[in-house]
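ARCHIVE RECORD
Type: protein–small molecule complex
Small molecule: beta-D-glucopyranose
Source of inputs: curated submission
Record status: active
Notes field left blank by submitter.
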Amino acid sequence: MPFTVPPRFLWGASTSGHQTEGNNVSSDWWGLETAPGTFVTEPSGDAVDSFHRWTEDMDLLAEAGFTDYRFGIEWARIEPAEGLVSRAAVAHYRAMVKGAVERGLRPLVTLHHFTSPRWFSEQGGWMNPKGVERFTRFVDMTEEILQDEVAHVCTINEPNMVAIYTGALAGAGVDSSGGLPAADPALTERLIEAHQAAREVLHRNNPGTKVGWSVAMQAVEPLTTDDQPAARAFAAERETRFVEAAVDDDWFGVQSYTRLRVRASADGPRTVPLPEHAERTLMGWEYYPAALGNAVREASRVLGDVPIIVTENGIATADDDQRIAYTGAALEGLRAAMDDGIRVDGYFHWSLLDNYEWGDYRPTFGLIAVDRSTFERKPRPSLSWLGGLPRAQAVVA
Ligand code: BGC
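STRUCTURE (tokenized, with ligand):
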């Protein structure tokens, strides 16, 4: 059954600041990208220059028929040194919020998307005793940007990936013998604390703001029915804990790309390597659009009635027909979950633009291609296809 877009449904595409803006020089990621001997193969550099070209990005999104835009505010730009607030950065993001609204795009704003100011991370980041307070102080600074024009705020993007990879990024290394490394339990609890404290600040500043966070949902499947307890244990600390932490939130963000299959072993749960012949995306992930519906069902199993918003779903591919096929199939799975009574309030595609994929530019996720030397935007057919879905249905009806 093809996906029909319900009335008032959020229908958008997503980006993040660091991956698109360029020259996020006060961020910890910029430090990592410019240090020798890391896994990074190319630095983000100018990215796709959305810092200067955001009006063009929003125009393309709105003209294609979308009604919603998810973008991020970079903490490192707002507070490049502790306590030093860049008025220019505040004005920049305020203009983005206003610019979105003027174009008929409802902004969904992310306050932390993998990057922190360098000073924050150099002082132990989240695990510094002042980590949560530093984050909430920044969250408070965004009041002036958000005002009452941003209905949905995502506090922290994929906190589970932060808890899984922060150790490795800091050079401590992580144990990945089970496939996806384990999450750091102390960091997990600290991130939950930060999220809940941020929610309080946002609600205090504007009781109407709907606050949530977005979790990387792995659509974990047991290899056989005997592997069910192993799959559950595998997901518990890498995912379920973060979903449960959203039980009092206003909405919950599902981010889904593929599935992981897990089996039991004498050394604990292990991910099952993909067979040679399996179809893969440019990320090396299994081509598996059904993951989205399954991820949404899992979120709803844990959270009951908390409204779900798909804040990321998409595919890294050089073939735009494949992007359309993947997305169409993922939306069918979403439709089936909604038909079964699960409340889903929106869908944001990852990503509006090809962008910096945390180490290199090779995986292309964009509905819009970007020439990396001229920054010319070249919309792909998938942009008008996806943006046109609500319109296409209105015509049919
Ligand atoms: C992240 C994005 C990333 C995407 C594809 C998510 O993990 O939020 O920043 O580009 O997936 O890997």
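CURATOR ANNOTATION: Residues 16, 19, 157-158, 161, 216, 255, 312, 350, 357 surround beta-D-glucopyranose (CB under 6 Å).
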